[in-house]
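Slide 14.
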Amino acid sequence: MRTQVTWADRVHDRDGTKQVVYDLCFRPDGTQLVVAAGQRVLVYDTSGGELIQALKGHKATVYCVSYSADGAKFASGGADGTIIIWTNKLEGILKYNHNDSIQCLAFNPASDQLASCACSDFGLWDPNQKAVNKHRVGSKILCCSWTNDGQYIAIGQMNGNISIRDKDGTEKVKIER
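Slide 15: predicted structure.
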């Protein structure tokens, strides 16, 4: 089997400096690719690789992006501690902050709930709630993943521990390694 490049882009900032791609995600229907690169969120058309738009809003490096399962919105988070919720029309509709840089984001596959994980805490945002429900942790968070039914989220930490939480943020299991 041979692979063939369909399209490619070299990500640069305004002065032509190459930018690291920290994260990327597809829109669920596969028509767009959202990329965290430098201080911007880049949105590409996947059929031909054209840059649709470079979204501005972060004041520091963007580390992570995540699309909701229904394709109606996506989120970006970065070193400035800010999470921005964007519509699929590429409009920023909400911002909220953590005190530390955002390490990872994950939309619940069964709802509109978003987990935003920073160095010292994680937040659970739901469009039906007025506030982000935040929970402190004992070690830097590096990764997270929801179960397919959206009932539980696993949070991987720098100290080697894994915390399994319910969708309200209550710890159900702690795996110490």
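Speaker note: Residues 151 and 167 are 5 Å apart (CA to CA).
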